[in-house]
Amino acid sequence: MSILAGAGSAALAATSGTLDVLSMNVAGLPPIFNGNDVPGDKTTNSRLIGSYFAQYAYDVINVQEDFNYHAYIYETDNHPYRTATTGGAAIGSGLNTLANFPWINFTRVKWDTCSNASGADCLTPKGFTFMRVQVDDGVYVDMYNLHTDAGTEPGDLSARNSNLQQVASYIDTWSTGNAVIVFGDTNSRYTRTSDDIRIFVEQNGMKDPWVELIHGGTAPSQEMLCQNPSITNECEVVDKIFYRGSAIVDLAATAWSYESSKFLQPDGNILSDHNPIMAKFDWKLSSSFRQSTYSGGPHGTWFTDLTTLSGKTGSIKTSEIAFAGASRLDSIGLTLADGTKFSHGGSGGTAVKLSLGQGEYWTSAVLCQGQKDGRTRNFYAEATTSAGKTLAAGTKTSDCSTFNAPSGWQIVGFLGQTGDEVDQLAFIYAPQ
């Protein structure tokens, strides 16, 4: 995997690569709550789990039930990017991520509904997490970690279906147009007709690599429970992985497996009551669209022009650039040669426009960010065309980045978050 390049180095970014993910419920509840039928000392076991994370160096690891033994896992792991714990049982969610890549926009979300019908799911604030992982320069994948309500009583089923719907709706709102991987403890099986685990396929257009690669694309209709450690990939557990690509980055699953044999105690005993699951992906950037890195902070409402752009046929060209700003950058927009208009942000500031000639392209931009009311926002934008024309709005700060379209490409749209101003912004590129 290539080293991340700077915002202005899009031409040097890798255009393809590989990515693997692991999901593991680490059984981190105190024994008084749940021994998880795992032999041995939980502190020792947790240290061993962390050492295996480091040894196998999975690119992104989502863990669940990471409660009271969290520090021991992190003590022996060496991933450079790791979420901070939210606390032990009854305080934290038990959800954490360890990764070889940085991320932005990390968010923890609590379930709207929980049930104690057959357990104590409401004892701790379970839910899901969201992060936008930067796999390479301009290569982002939205990743979700979740741990749904357990049990099979009517109250459990209702709560779990609500949990899954909550994640699916969040994806529709905050990951529109983006590549996505969801992996965690769903407490669901395809063979339970009451479970709505297919929602990620049916509502979000995702695939399950276990179904795709191990079962030939058809989910099993008869229950086949797994041993632990599992000796076959055919059987089903409640831990799942779902994925989809985007118009910018294609994702293709190349492998899926239970990693159980890699996570054993020296005497051969298990470290968790869950079989850890792994999937490998090939990723490849599109020949039609690319994107820049982001400037600004994770505030406001998510938007993307990619859904509109990806539906167009033929060449795409920017014919007019439009900014508005004063103390900060209030809005940003452009018009395409076919008349399509994109505009994002508020109604304030002084508006400025720049028309582009027939063979002229928007090829470079500068964005400056700063703090306002405790939030990072974009304060300034400057556009430069292939003919050397410029357009600027807002107020420069000391924290500025230059975004150069790759050679032979141009800026044709935006994605990010806005409210009354432009909070977070990245550029969409298309060939000239």
TrEMBL record:
InterPro entries: Endo/exonu/phosph_ase_sf, IPPc, Jacalin-like_lectin_dom, Jacalin-like_lectin_dom_sf, Sph/SMPD2-like. It holds the Pfam family Jacalin. One of its GO terms (molecular function) is endonuclease activity. Transmembrane segments: none annotated. GO terms for biological process: phosphatidylinositol dephosphorylation. Residues 300-431 form the Jacalin-type lectin domain. Keywords: Endonuclease, Hydrolase, Nuclease. One of its GO terms (cellular component) is cytoplasm. It comes from the Eukaryota. PANTHER family: SPHINGOMYELINASE DDB_G0288017, SPHINGOMYELINASE FAMILY MEMBER. This is Probable endonuclease/exonuclease/phosphatase family protein. It comes from Cephalotrichum gorgonifer.
